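User
Take a look at the entry that follows and flag anything odd:
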Amino acid sequence: MLEELKNEVYQANMSLPKLGLVTFTWGNVSGIDREKGLFVIKPSGVAYEDLKPDDMVVVNLDGNVVEGDLNPSSDTPTHAYLYRHFKNIGGITHTHSPWGVSFAAAQMDIPAVSTTHADTFYGDIPCTPALSQEEIQSAYELNTGKVIVSEFEQRQIDPDATPAVLVSQHGPFTWGVNASKSVYNAKVLEVSAEISYHALQSTRSDIHVPQYLLDKHYYRKHGVNAYYGQKKAVSVNHS
């Protein structure tokens, strides 16, 4: 079942240690088949060097296992909730990458202070409020998904334009059109967090990029008038 998607999700998971985004088994990637209403996710607690494509677990949008001999990631309810509410996403990555976790531990947004950030994220990467003791003890992973979606709704953030979040005192979740893109966004988040950290040590001023620079860098890579790269019609003359 979903053999091509299993391989894609396997490859995305295997890229996490290569990119320096995970230590031990602290991370997971999933990818969804929207037509079938099923997603594939890394099994829980299995070392990356031991993983095989066939180890990937097929799960439905209620978080129930459809195929697989191993337990799915403990974060499966979070992934399922995000897939149910962010309708355009095709892949999700969760890591405990240290620079991202530093901001999550401080309960701070990652501010958009550079064009490196603005190329991928249209504004600050939000940090959610901390979960309550009741939310943690009752349905921790499900409530993690709920607090993410609630924060985007309350702040009126477009999850397609800012495909990332920090869960307070926990760590980053990123997403994208597929599993590979969600990993790409996880790496950009980590680099952006490190840049922001060092910049914030250097000044007490508001160092957010101005809106016009944010707009320029985000929209030259995204949207109908994008001209970054080789596949855009306007790339020839930067019109």
User: Anything to note?
Assistant: The chain has seven helices and seven strands. The chain has a mean pLDDT of 96. The helical segments are 3-18, 76-85, 98-105, 115-118, 133-155, 179-202, 211-219. The CA atoms of residues 13 and 47 lie 11 Å apart.
